[in-house]
Design a protein that fits this description.
Length: about 280
């Protein structure tokens, strides 16, 4: 049987990251472990309040989202309650809080950064998120670094469980920059660590083979579609999506790219492509 012509076994689940809406949201908040008062990304004037995002997504028929940590004022409980209420009112699930900084594998600052991640996990738990994405590390993946990263991640997984969360990492930054280290880190967790497979993080001649190697571990997906001159690279997007379908991936497909100046239009285009390639 030709796997590339088979539909997914579960209904197609489309999600959107707050990063796809960043050009509209504009506002960001401090979020760096080495400097708690420093902006992770410089803010700019926006036209979309984060509190309005759940309703805006629901109006497009999307009931799952992810949020970047720097889009949230982490220590403002009143605000977090407002955002949680907005999610509930729109019937939108917060699938993942993306913790976009920290180096838990750092030889000097790993404990500090793990503590910083833990505080963001408190935020995720407060919001009722299902998962948190944690960077495996920014160090070269030597055997010692891989072991250290895995140990830190397993410790965070225990803390996450107590908060009703699942921990995943991503094929991102040096420690998780190749299939081999990812396989070892997930293997050290006995398969309990999740993986967000991001289409936009790897390239080169081995790109598709590398994605195929880690696709069986994927519990989440950043389905990035590249645009050039307003047109999507549909061939690349299809090849990446079919790799996950062949691996029997069952999680949501989170759209991360919203083309500046045509954010909602580009998200609609990507939804159409997802349905064309997977929901047939």
């Amino acid at each position: 049987m030709d796997l590339t012509t088979m539909p997914l076994q579960t209904p197609l689940r489309i999600s959107v990251s707050s990063w796809a809406l960043h050009s509209l949201i504009g506002q960001t908040y401090p979020g760096r472990p080495e400097d708690p008062d420093a902006d992770f990304i410089a803010p700019h004037a926006g036209t979309l309040d984060l509190l309005d995002v759940p309703a805006a997504l629901a109006a497009c028929g999307i009931t799952t989202m992810e949020v970047c940590h720097f889009h949230l004022p982490a220590h403002d409980t009143a605000y977090l309650d407002q955002f949680k209420s907005a999610l509930t009112a729109a019937n939108v699930e917060l699938w993942n809080l993306l913790i976009d900084d920290g180096d838990i594998a750092h030889p000097l600052h790993g404990a500090r950064d793990a503590g910083w991640v833990l505080r963001w996990m408190d935020v995720a738990g407060h919001l009722g998120a299902r998962c948190v994405r944690v960077i495996a590390g920014k160090q070269e993946p030597t055997p010692g670094v891989i072991a250290h990263s895995s140990e830190r991640l397993m410790g965070l997984m225990v803390d996450a469980y107590l908060r009703g969360l699942h921990v995943m990492t991503e094929n991102w930054y040096q420690t998780a920059s190749r299939p081999g280290p990812i396989e070892k880190i997930i293997g050290m967790s006995n398969g309990t660590l999740g993986l967000c497979l991001d289409f936009g993080n790897w390239g080169g001649d081995t790109k598709y083979a590398d994605y195929a190697a880690i696709a069986p571990f994927a519990t989440s997906c950043h389905a990035k579609c590249n645009f050039s001159g307003g047109k999507p690279d549909a061939d690349d997007f299809r090849r990446c999506l079919l790799i996950l379908r062949d691996a029997r991936y069952q999680g949501p497909f989170t759209l991360v790219h919203g083309e500046s100046g045509a954010v909602w239009e580009s998200l609609e285009t990507q939804q159409d492509l997802l349905r064309e390639f997977l929901d047939t």
